[in-house]
Amino acid sequence: MSTTLERPALDTPRKVAPAKDSGTLLRSQVRTGWALLTPALLHSSIFIVIPVVAVLVLSLTDYSFGDTWSWVGFGNYSELFRDVDFQASLWHTVLYAIVVIPISMAISLAVAIGLNQKMKGLGFFRTAFYIPTVTATVAVATIWLWIYNPGSGLANGFLSLFGFAPNRWLADPATALPSLMVVGIWQGLGTKVIIYLAALQGVSRDLLESAELDGANRWQKFANVTWPAIGPVQFFVLITSIVGTFQVFDLVYVMTQGGPGSETRVLVMDIYQNAFQDLKLGYASAETVIMMLVIAAFISVGRLIQRADAND
User: Fold this and answer.
1) Inter-CA distances, 222 with 16, 216, 228, Å
2) pLDDT tens across 147-162, in order?
3) What is the mean pLDDT of residues 85-112?
4) Are 255 and 145 in contact (CB under 8 A)?
5) What is the pLDDT of residues 258-271, one digit of tens each?
6) Four-residue CA torsion sign, 56, 61, 64, 70
7) Which of 169, 186, 168 is nearest to 178 (CA)?
8) Which residues have C-beta within 8 Å of that of residue 249, sequence separation ≥ 6?
9) How far is residue 288's CA from residue 211's CA, in Å, rounded to a whole number?
């Protein structure tokens, strides 16, 4: 019986698709990137760019929600710097920002360092510090109105234990704005603490252990390892704090309505009154432009400080 050996079939060569050249691939990636960015760009254009341009244009007019308006050029701006209420509100807002921003950042960083340690009840403390941030400002203001109540408030009750005379807090021109600053610092701690805590947990453990092996104490590890590592986060917190403090309104409106007199009148409150009570939208737009310029100046100073700190 003869046996026939079958030869194995040779594998047919596969067709390899030609690789895309780098130029085609780059163009494809660019198109994909623009497609993904389109929703964000539309959002920014509709809710940021267009309103900013509208404010700039309206600030050069005497528009007041009526059918007729005229072009006044820089007339609104020249009037602003003769307006006593505007000057007071601008000064109060700048003073509020200068006090609240550094104190709140320092306290938040200290709290975050404490919450970054291993301790019992850590989840409770993290939640407790964050609750004021998610609480409605009207509710926060109502609670602090009771705390500052001259007759039955917690603040005067606490001070009386040490023999201090009761204070009128929000009704006293000397203490009204500082009292609001305390509330602003307290309410804004939660967000900053969470951001700082996330940054601290991202600091390299290897660098901290290396510094400890080199004989560094806690302060030296913080100054030479932790502080430089959280530098970008510090700048982010600074920028968001600047924008937030310059936009303070509801807290002041509920607690003092700008009083006593105009001792707590802030810039957004002055803009609100001119725009929606006096119907001077062009004038209020000019105030808004000034506020944007002041915010930009504060951010520029913060940027210079951050660069100087990074170079050191």
Assistant:
1) 57, 9, 9
2) 999 988 999 999 898 8
3) 95
4) yes
5) 989 899 999 999 99
6) negative
7) 169
8) 266, 268, 269, 272
9) 49
